[in-house]
Amino acid sequence: MKFSKLFLVALTGAVFFVSCNSDDDKAPQLPLGAYDNGFLVLNQGNFLAGNSEVTYISNDFATQQNEIFSTVNPTTLGDTGQDIGFNDEKAFIVLNGSNSIQVVNRYTFEMLATITTGLSNPRYIAFANGKGYVTNWGDGGVATDDYVAVLDLTSYAVTATIPVVEGPERIIEEDNKLYVAHQGGYGYGNSVSVISASSNTVTSTIAVGDVPNSLEIENGVLYVLCAGKASWTNDETPGALHQINLNGNQNTSYAFPAGQHPSNLVIEDNKMYYTVDSDIFVKTTNATLPTQPLFSTTSQGVYGVYSFAVENDKIFVGDAGDYSSNGKVYIYSLTGSLEKEYTVGVTPAGFYFNE
Amino acid sequence: MTFKKLFLVSIFFACQFALAQNDSIRTLEVVEISDLQLKNYSNSQSVQKLNDSIINKNQSSLTSLLNYNTVIYFKENGLGMVSSPSFRGTTAQQTAVIWNGININSQLNGQTDFNTLTTRNFDNITVRAGGGSSIYGSSAIGGSIHLNNNLSFRNHFDNELRLNYGSFNTFGGNYKVDVSDGKFAVQASISRNSSDNDYEYLDTDRKNENGQFYNTSVNVVAGYKLNDSNIFKIYSQVFDSERHFSGTINAVSKSKYQDVNTRNMLEWIGLYSKFTSKLKVAFISENYKYFENAQADFFTHGKAETAIAKYDLAFDLTENISINSIFEYNQTKGFGSDIQETTREIGAGTLLFKHSVSDKFLYEVSVRKELTNTYESPVLFSLGTNYKVASFYTVKINASRNFRIPTFNDLYWQGSGNADLNPESSYQAEIGNEFRYKELTFSATGYYIKIDDMLRWSPGTGGIWTPNNVAKVETYGAEGYLNWNKNFGKNTIDFNASYAYTISKDEKLDKQLIYVPYHKLTSSASYSFGNFTAYYQYLFNGEVFTSSDNAYTLDGYSVSNIGVNYTFFKTANLGFEVLNLWNENYQITLNRPLPGRNYSVNLTFNF
To answer: Distance between CA A253 and CA A269 in Å, rounded?
Structure first.
């Protein structure tokens, strides 16, 4: 028992304890100057904790720097980083909790502007027709106030808002059109809105399965991955992968087995990658859905793949761990052998390749 | 139902005892205070009583009172916002709040928000450190906080009005009337607190936006002495508050939160020779509404209603041996926008035994078992002694087993709740040393707590967060209290200090729990000369970790308050206070700065 020792501490400490609020912070790190030829990891942080940050890792895996935003800039990034979009030299970092966008030089990471008006629960960003398009949930509990904000990229003002149905999440651009997946916000969506960047209006709506969480366009085909409703909703629906021919040809859908809820669709070199819980799957175009995963991340202790990318013949997995501690990034070969492992910031939520 | 049987048995016994000879000699406390065990069965633990003079010297929130006067650490989400205690390194759910003998921790989230209780509604607030589950049930692991109203049947008529006003348009008002003719007694009070709470964040150009709050509470205790043996009392409290939840340094919030809590209890006290019987029936309710957008109509809500029947029978076997049995039946119904409507029934039987072997030595034992259909309940116990080694030195030793039951949120939150949870349970021991020499009192207590089956919410397959009994925590430390009080002529000097050293480790990670400082120190000094009093308060909280891997920390801080009071016409008192005297820029919770130097004036009338 250490009681005797503790008593001594208490006896002496209680009366004579002096506040030694020492500043034993680590030596400050210096900006690298250039954050290209590598990738950025957006660490979401915790909602309302204001601890979002960005990690840089070089393509040769030799260099890693955490907290690059506050290393370069005299302030902190903000609350709950959700997405980063690149446009020319600029990176737009969408901060859900702060209801803001930090605009930085994507290579030096120096702050250029902070956009704080016109956003309400902002989620993801895409660019078209010289404008930024940002999905917004509005109040999470309200289904009728969701919109896409149109952002002027020089004045950084929200110049128009396009009302959409509930829960606009991921957004991508193709041929001056924007495709918005309605994952559903606090509810469950089942559609993709198509927005014309010339008229800033919703021109059509594509019905998909429940909870579309990721989408990509390749060779005129829109691929939408839907998770389906989870079992705890008491209205479980199966996941689905839709292939929608944008020039009007035959569409194809693949239904996932009951209880399987996929996410994180990535198309790379004619292969479709997605994840189910801790498992990584790969599907060849036009083949049926694989029954066996390519590999599983469970040996790294990953509960569920929090963020995912496939690039430069590598598979990138972000693991949020217990969401309080620093997260991990694992880099695998295309066959699933673990090649690199990094400790990044809290809740790694996305990979952005800064070539 | 077994509970019903037990209840019937105990009622039957009560009637028998009623026939026994009425001795009519009882301490006043039996009549005045509802929570008898706090006085009678807390001899082997550290108990700190904060009476109304200390209560009045502090801000009206329970957070502020306990933060500046005890070793309990508070994590407050900004001034006036949600406030959770960590007592001896445990969690907020492992600290019980006992209102006139009834456990009032939320049935929904298992903890009490210490900013939803106004201290001025109570006559004394007692901090009972260490295990108390064998008497008070769930959550009394780190310790328990007892909020007591004393109802006096002495013939009297007293009124008190207290008003304070300070920076950020902060207003506090409290009126209390206390009256008795010897047969009837009533104590009633009404309190109102409000603040714009729009203080500047020091060293920035930003303010604490959307932090305004108000609360109103009404408190009534009434009693009627039917005869020397039978006394009826009613306790009633309503608390209504609305708080806008302020944001952080990087994110402005627009949400607000409303609480309405009611507590009602009817008590029949029977004094029969060697028996004291207390039959209590209580109904307590909690109700919250959360508005994500304060300007909009949409909200989520939760509600819990608890009915309690409790029969408490104390028996003095001899002059030196006391026995006390308590039977309790408790039914809680929880419902709301996010939990499945569920009713939970708990029955409990407690037996307490105290033997004063001599003037110098006593031991006490208590055992409790709860029965419920929801989870397995362990046998809870407490064993303790109090030994007066010398006229100036007393040693107290206590060992106990305690628990914290899963809450309605843990069990029934839609999509996440886990109906297969067990209670968190602890084994713990402590040794207390108390020294008294002339005007000096000093106590030092060392403790060790081992907590098993700690509930942790973590993401499972599919990223869905669910609670599980996975964690084990080991907590140990030492705490000390010092008091020195000296009168010479018209001068009085009073000095108090407390210090806690706390290690609270997650066994698997081998890391200190987040928001548990290694060091906490408080001290206060006051000097009175005739009608004039001046005082100084000091609080130091050491560095805390904000992530479970201990990779991120929040700096420690020191805050001081200073105040003066002047009493005139013997019935009025005027006070002036400077809070955060040294304008310390500090955060209790990450990125939520607290106010810099601010001021408050107060005026009290007694008539």
So the answer is: 21
Chain A, residues 240-269, CB within 8 A of chain B, namely 261
The overall average pLDDT reported for chain B is 90
pLDDT in tens, A313-326: 999 999 998 888 99
Q: Are B289 and B257 in contact (CB under 8 A)?
A: yes
Banded pLDDT at B88 (limits 50, 70, 90) = very high
H helices present in chain A, as ranges:
3-16, 68-72
pLDDT single digits (tens) B151-167: 999 999 999 999 999 99
The C-alpha atoms of residue B437 and residue B391 are separated, in whole angstroms, by 9
Query: CA nearest A120: which of A102, A91, A94?
Result: A94
**A-chain residues within 8 Å CB-CB of B557?**
21
Using the beta-carbon criterion (under 8 Å), do A19 and B540 form an inter-chain contact?
Answer: yes
What residues of chain A lie within 8 A of the CB of B247, using their CB?
48
Give A-chain residues touching B556 at CB under 8 angstroms: 19, 21
User: Least CA distance to B466: which residue of chain A?
Assistant: A232
- The nearest alpha carbon in chain B to A14 belongs to B499
State yes or no: pLDDT of A24 exceeds 50. Answer: no
- Whether A6 sits inside 8 A of B501 (CB atoms) is yes
CA distances from B51 to B196, B498, B585 (A): 29, 17, 31
Instruction: State which H helix or E strand residue B278 sits in.
Output: strand B275-291
Put simply, the chain A residues between 206 and 235 with a CB less than 8 A from any chain B CB are 230, 232-233
Note the pLDDT of residue B424. Answer: 95
Look at B292 and A49 and tell me if their CB atoms are within 8 Å. Answer: no
A79 touches chain B (CB under 8 A): yes
Is A322's CB within 8 Å of B458's CB? Answer: yes
Cα dist from B486 to A297, B114, B437, B601, whole Å: 68, 33, 12, 28
> Per-residue pLDDT tens for B275-331?
999 999 999 999 999 998 999 888 999 999 999 999 999 999 998 999 999 999 999
Q: Give the best residue of A2, A12, A19 to mutate against chain B (max B CB count within 10 A).
A: A19
The overall longest dimension of chain B from CA atoms, in Å, is 74
* Band of pLDDT at residue B27, cut at 50, 70 and 90: low
Contact B499 A261 (CB under 8 A): no
How many whole angstroms separate alpha carbon B359 and alpha carbon B320? 10
Neighbours of B240 (CB within 10 A): 17
Nearest Cα neighbor of B57 from B584, B563, B597 is B563
Q: What is the pLDDT of residue B349?
A: 96
Residue B488 has pLDDT above 50, yes or no: yes
The four Cα atoms B137, B141, B146, B147 give a dihedral, to 10 degrees, of -80
Structure letter (DSSP) for residue B372: E
Chain B CB contacts of A261 below 8 Å: 462
Indicate if the pLDDT at residue B498 is higher than 70.
yes
Whole-angstrom distance, CA of residue B30 vs CA of residue A190 = 65
The one-letter amino acid at B471: A
The string of pLDDT tens digits covering residues B532-574 is 999 999 999 999 999 999 999 999 999 999 999 999 988 999 9
The token pair that represents B59 in the structure block:
């801000």
Cβ–Cβ < 8 Å for B456, B470 = yes
ipTM of predicted assembly, 2 dp: 0.83
Is A304 close to B462, i.e. CB distance below 8 A? yes
Q: Which residues pair with B496 in a beta bridge?
A: B483, B524
Determine the residue of chain B that is closest to A260 in CA distance. Answer: B462
